[in-house]
Specification:
Layout (H helix, E strand, L loop, with lengths): L12 H13 L13 H6 L3 E7 L3 H11 L4 E8 L6 H14 L7 E3 L13 H4 L21 H11 L4 E5 L4 H9 L9 E5 L14 H5 L1 H8 L5 E4 L1 H4 L6 H9 L3 H19 L9 H10 L4 E10 L10 E4 L10 H10 L26 E7 L1 H12 L4
Parallel strand pairs: 1-2, 1-4, 2-3, 4-5, 5-6, 6-9
Antiparallel strand pairs: 7-8, 7-9
Helix pairs in contact: 3-4, 3-12, 3-13, 6-7, 7-9, 11-12
């Protein structure tokens, strides 16, 4: 299959129209906070259909345990992609988390073993050779479904059009593969919430966050797809450091999920200290899941986000355009005018040619809600409370 990282313009009409309406109303760049639901409202709410795409990974494992303990979610599938660890390690880790959570009814599918056009770079240096910080669990008895991840994603989204949210906490290879194979699929996805990207520098290079760095071509396809996106990146996940106190709460609970989470978390902290870090690790992926469960944990701003794919030093960088960003602040009427006239600029053409970026636009239309602030205390109350069985 020829998966070229071709960039297509946003074609999801409803998304563009609603974004243009927001521009005209002058609402861009303003913090968007959701009001938390009351306990009775949450109990009566229909569970949200989600597919979790993951590369377990320490923080992925805890995010999966959180998701499978959350009655707000109807998890239609877990799809696994190579990233933090090779697929042959990530897939059994996902199956282990499903077994520990006693959620064997959830189909788990194997996905891409490598990025679209690049060699795989893993993060075993951060997650340990087995992806779980060195925490050892029995081999899973649960088996993956035979259907490849991209095919499973297509089938579920088409079965439940406009109902499925994609929770992506790894490289976006599986999602891009599904979108490439089914050009109408993007218009049937309700939304996509991703852990990935950063507008404030990277964690594997100075420019790039790991998940986007591994497969920037796939990330660009997703950002240009027209799916309503929420980016939960390093701008907020850097503020979610796991501590010994958190682990002690998990260790004190007799619940099997809490004990498994504690085992992984304890090993992850020890692994970080062995590498010379005095804090960490950060709960990147769990924040993306928790932010979907309770949007009031996050402050979101509208951006037009694209991905650098050609840079020798910056490949995988997520670049955010906003009329309200930058050192020079505008009056509200100035922001509205800028939103209507602000071009999306790429690199200038070289003297040897006239080629410019294929994603240039003559006006600003946001494609992503970017998390810029997080209530870390409330996040950990939810994460540790759910994993320990107390919330």
């Amino acid at each position: 299959m020829d998966l070229k990282p071709e960039v297509k313009p946003i074609t999801r009409r409803e998304f563009v129209v609603s974004s243009a309406t927001m521009v005209a109303a002058g609402t861009l760049g303003i913090e968007a906070r959701s009001v938390p639901a009351t306990a009775s409202e949450a109990a009566n709410r229909t569970p949200s259909r989600v597919i979790i795409d993951t590369d377990p990974g320490v923080d992925d494992a805890l995010a999966l345990l959180l998701a499978m303990r959350s009655p707000e979610l109807s998890i239609e599938a877990i799809t696994v992609v190579a990233g933090n660890v090779p697929l042959e390690l990530g897939l059994p880790n996902a199956l282990r988390m499903a077994e520990i959570s006693r959620r064997m009814e959830i189909p788990v599918a194997a996905g891409a073993t490598a990025p679209l056009v690049r060699r795989l770079v893993t993060a075993t240096y951060a997650h340990g050779e087995n992806g779980l910080g060195g925490a050892v669990f029995p081999d899973p008895t649960l088996k993956p479904v035979a259907e490849p991840a991209a095919d499973l994603i297509q089938g579920i989204v088409r079965k439940y059009p406009d109902e499925v949210t994609l929770l992506t906490i790894g490289p976006l290879t599986n999602i891009a593969t599904a979108l490439h194979a089914d050009p109408e699929l993007a218009g049937k996805v309700r939304s996509l919430v991703m852990m990935g990207g950063s507008l404030s520098g990277g964690n594997i290079t100075p420019a790039a966050e790991f998940n986007v760095y591994v497969d920037p071509e796939a990330a660009r396809i997703v950002f240009q797809s027209g799916i309503p996106l929420t980016m939960v990146g390093l701008d907020v996940t850097r503020k979610t450091t796991l501590t010994d106190d958190h682990v002690r709460v998990l260790e004190a609970a007799p619940d099997p999920v809490s004990q498994a989470a504690a085992k992984i978390a304890r090993k992850a902290i020890e692994h970080n200290r062995e590498r010379g870090f005095i804090v960490g690790p950060n709960m990147h992926d769990s924040l993306a899941v928790a932010g979907f469960l309770d949007p009031s944990l996050l402050t979101l701003r509208e951006y037009y986000v694209d991905v650098e794919t050609a840079g020798e030093l910056t490949a995988g960088e997520t670049v955010g355009y906003s009329p309200s960003a930058g050192d020079l602040r505008r009056r509200p009427d100035g922001e509205r005018e800028a939103a209507l006239t602000m071009p999306i600029r790429g690199s200038a053409p070289t003297l040897a040619g006239t080629r410019t970026s294929p994603v240039l636009r003559d006006k600003f239309v946001p494609n992503t809600k970017v998390a810029v602030e997080v209530n870390s205390n409330r996040f950990f109350e939810r994460l540790i409370g759910r994993l320990s069985g107390k919330a």
